[in-house]
Design goal:
2 copies of one chain form a homodimer.
Chain A (H helix, E strand, L loop, with lengths): L1 H18 L14 H17 L5 H14 L12 H5 L7 H14 L12 E2 L14 H11 L9 H4 L2 H13 L14 H15 L8 E4 L2 H12 L5 E7 L4 H8 L3 E6 L10 H13 L3 E8 L11 H14 L2 E5 L16 H7 L9 E6 L13 E6 L3 H13 L5 H11 L9 H27 L4 E2 L8 E2 L2 E2 L3 H9 L4 H13 L1 E2 L1 E2 L10 E6 L4 H22 L1
Parallel strand pairs in A: 1-12, 3-4, 3-5, 5-6, 6-7
Antiparallel strand pairs in A: 2-8, 7-8, 9-11, 10-14, 11-14, 13-14
Family (chains A, B): Belongs to the class-I pyridoxal-phosphate-dependent aminotransferase family. Alanine aminotransferase subfamily.
Catalytic activity (chains A, B): glycine + 2-oxoglutarate = glyoxylate + L-glutamate; glyoxylate + L-alanine = glycine + pyruvate
GO biological process, one term (chains A, B): L-alanine catabolic process
């Protein structure tokens, strides 16, 4: 397909070169998309003109490219932004596209020859898709805010509990125009106050609503941040390997450089400050201006929960190296391992005292994970501290260009941070729903990671937190050679074959970054406790067959 | 504040220059943010190193800048992305910030000395904030989808009409995981099918659900588009003046060039293809590669509704000049003028026949405007035709990086396109609500534009559509001189003074673009019919006093 598109463009470019009588030094060959070259000539000429160095040849190129402009395809893959073209986002790529095809075939009855009768999406932390029930209280309040007319119906409390009714009334009284109106760009003032109060309670340190932005999830935060921070390819961000590919994708989109640091798989995906220092020094020696460090805690895809001592070391390292710390803390409610607990980087920074008062930190949270799993809401917050007002005003302006985040999502974020309290009518149900989900996730985490770890040719760290197992694969040489032959990463090949054999959708480790030469995949442990047994059985059979076939 | 930040940075830069023994040719002066210079040195050195031309001096710069890195502020206004810093978004700027202060003062009782007792936000098309009621049926379905447990309650139809219950059941059956789960990146299949069917009905031409992306409103569409289309500053987009500043802001953010074309105020903000051609030729002669043309129809801030003949001329012009047409059609349900009607550019293109089968068009719609005004939902769609799959896959990837748009918003977009039908229980109420809002908007449009047009020193075209009046101001020289003295655009000065005197929040024409030397402001006609009389009275008094004071 690409070849078909490029052929005519190349022809035009060659015509142009002929017309120009080879006035440029660029060599055209069939491997170089010619519209780049055309375009580069045009740019060079334009730049020359702007700098007042317009030469006869540049003028000629300009005139020619203007004429040729009308002949090239308006928009095709050769003349789009290269960062947009090259960015990768593994969580939804080729495998997911194929999974949708299988699911469509099954739905339409065409899938009867498949070796599975349904597709199980373990590629993405999307709990409700796999049957997790939403928190009732949150949904009751959201429903009442959506259609407030029922608040005045005398029968409302026959369908909704009194505290949900009261909460909806309180929110609506404070949201000018209700959920259908744009709010302030940062979010509704009352909802930010509630989130701030909850952060204060969580950390034991003050939190100002002015430092909070209610967002459409962690993704927009990352866009605002990268757009603001990155000036060009020489600006880099220290990013964990493996990482959630939102970071690699936005670094590519906004033309920055990913400066990798590796988590130590053999130490339970632990962090080593000496290694961080080596990574920064190496990047600087190569000319990269390292601007920030991303930490995902609990880890995605790796599931580790950092100890406070490690967190302090990270903060001290960032201060010493003058890095903005970006704390992705969207799994803060997902900690399963005994003796482990989540501590926010905000608390770590504030505990370090006045010397760290100006320490720059952006921390992110989301309604998508935890025990609430409200992915479809698209909502989260970012807290910005230690960053001066001019820069915060740039974040605000970027948020303003999209006007505001969705109001139901803002409400949901406030509900997550300010749930029913002891004594309120919905408290017991809320606690039960929360503990049921977290208890079950914990059992599933243990069950899945130990089952994977027990396979020949697989090792898997326990998942201390988050929603994922990230097992390492020791794949037979014959399998790797086959993958290489068809131009696929071995773990991509493995995940594709797993989908074909089992209907289980996973993501290859190469999509997250891994130590070169190692292979992994990521799977959620979100299927229900019943379903996860089937998933384990199917993966086990698939894996053992594969090992036998290729060894 | 800036000076305070720059001073130490400059000192460090000078120290560096001293240490380097003036090894660069860059001249430092107090007007150049020194971190740029540091950074440029570092970039130059890095580039030299990458090209294998590492010289001793470049190595030295590299080492020095690495050391100095730890001394410069981590993130401040001098070392962020210049496009992010410079982008402007007038709809929420200085005036709105001041309006929020006034509103807060009034709320807290500190505003008793103000000459008004409330702030009226006419700066933004935010109908529900100003009291417009949402469409009941839409909200009922959304509420039921939020908390589906009530669907099984025998009393549900005492609170919600039967067709809302049925619609919610149907949507939930087709949305895997409900409103709390991520959908496919393009949006839920069934909802895209409903939107596609409605577009087919509107235009009388086929629409494929595959060509539709359900988005978080028109803003993300514009981000995807600009990110994909623009390779660098030499890529330009033909943009109306005046325009909705989403276009100028995203063009700046993604480092493209705005190629202005002016709407003819004296011809009711009409379009002139000869003028378009002049603008494109001029831009090309200056080295800009013009890639696309934006048309906002009905116009924002200008309110004109294009005739089909003009639309055809635009499409033919884009084909001739090889431009992607971007049709912002978010006001398609807001047409007031007798004899005018909205026709989509999709219909125009398809009516032109097979010669235009590959014509590239992106059209955008939104739930935020019309008679529904669901701004706080953040939802819309884009339809992409005539663009090949590789490029559509890039849009899809960009959408995937944010996973999906919010599901309640997706449902709302489907509801807007597929409302209750004759014979269904909610049809009558829906029709009444729709006609009430549109009838009232029409009366308010006429009332406001004619009142403004009748003022001395103001002329105002009728608003044929959309939600805005965009009157031209003929300001006294003395007033313009005063504005100049304080470094403000005259219309900015006017709008600020209007806010101070009346509490009415408007946006200066300079935020939208206007013929140099002319002055305008934009105001919505969204205050209720009662409130708009007060707004008119207050603006009239303010304006007449100002004209008297400065003439």
């Amino acid at each position: 397909m690409l070849a078909r598109i490029l052929a005519p463009a190349r022809k035009r470019a060659l015509t142009l070169q002929y017309l120009l009588n080879t006035s440029t030094t660029t060599t055209l060959n069939k491997h170089t998309p010619p519209s780049y070259q055309l375009h580069n000539m045009s740019i060079a000429a334009a730049a020359a003109a702007q700098q007042g160095h317009m030469h006869a040849s540049a003028e000629k190129v300009l005139r020619m490219t203007s004429t040729v402009a009308a002949m090239t395809p308006t928009v095709d893959v050769t003349n789009v932004n290269p960062n947009a073209r090259e960015a990768k986002y593994a969580v939804r790529g080729e495998i997911v596209a194929k999974a949708y095809e299988y699911a469509a075939d099954i739905a339409s009855g065409k899938g009867s020859n498949l070796p599975f009768d349904r597709v199980v999406y373990c590629n993405i932390g999307n709990p409700q898709q796999l049957g997790q029930k939403p928190v009732s209280f949150f949904r009751q309040v959201l429903a009442l805010c959506d259609y407030p007319d029922v608040l005045d119906n005398p029968k409302v409390e026959e369908l909704y509990p009194a505290d949900a009714v009261a909460r909806a009334r309180r929110y609506l009284a404070a949201i000018p125009g209700g959920v259908g109106a744009y709010s302030q760009s940062k979010g509704v003032a009352l909802l930010r106050q509630e989130v701030a109060a909850a952060i204060e309670k969580r950390d034991g340190h003050p939190c100002s609503p002015d430092d909070l932005f209610l967002t459409d999830g962690a993704s927009p935060t990352c866009h605002y941040l990268m757009k603001t921070l990155l000036r060009n390819k020489s600006d880099g961000v220290l990013t964990p390997m493996p990482q959630y590919p939102l970071y690699s994708a936005t670094l590519e989109l906004y033309d920055g450089s990913l400066v990798p640091y590796y988590l130590a798989e053999e130490k339970g995906w632990g962090m080593d400050v000496n290694h961080l220092k080596e990574c920064v020094d190496k990047a600087r020696a190569e000319g990269t201006v390292v601007r920030a460090m991303v930490v995902i805690n609990p880890g995605n895809p790796t599931g580790q929960v950092l100890d406070e001592a490690d967190q302090r070391a990270v903060v001290q390292f960032c201060k010493q190296e003058n890095l903005l710390l970006v704390a992705d803390e969207v799994y803060q409610d997902n900690v399963y391992r005994e003796g482990k607990k989540f501590t926010s980087f905000k608390k770590i920074v504030r505990d370090l005292g006045s010397e760290y008062a100006d320490f720059p930190l952006i921390s992110m949270h989301s309604v998508s994970k935890g025990f609430y799993g409200e992915c479809g809401r698209r909502a989260g917050y970012m807290e910005v501290i230690g960053i001066n007002d001019e820069v915060k005003d740039i974040f605000l302006k970027l948020a303003s260009v999209s006007l505001c985040s969705n109001i139901s999502g803002q409400i949901c974020m406030a509900l997550v941070m300010n749930p029913p309290k002891p004594g309120e009518p919905s408290y017991e149900l809320y606690e039960r729903e929360k503990n049921d989900v977290l208890g079950s996730l914990k059992r599933r985490a243990v069950r899945l990671t130990s089952a994977l770890d027990s396979l020949d040719g697989v090792s898997c760290n326990p998942a201390e937190g988050a929603l994922y197992a990230f097992p390492r694969l020791y794949l037979p040489d014959k399998f790797c050679a086959e993958a290489k032959k068809i131009g696929r990463e071995p773990d991509m090949h493995y995940c594709m074959k797993m989908l074909d054999a089992t209907g289980v959708v996973t993501v290859p480790g190469s999509g997250f970054g891994q130590v070169p030469g190692t292979h992994h995949f990521r799977t959620t442990f979100l299927p229900s406790e019943q379903d996860i047994e089937t998933v384990i059985t199917n993966i086990t059979t698939f894996h053992n067959n594969l090992m036998k076939e290729y060894s």
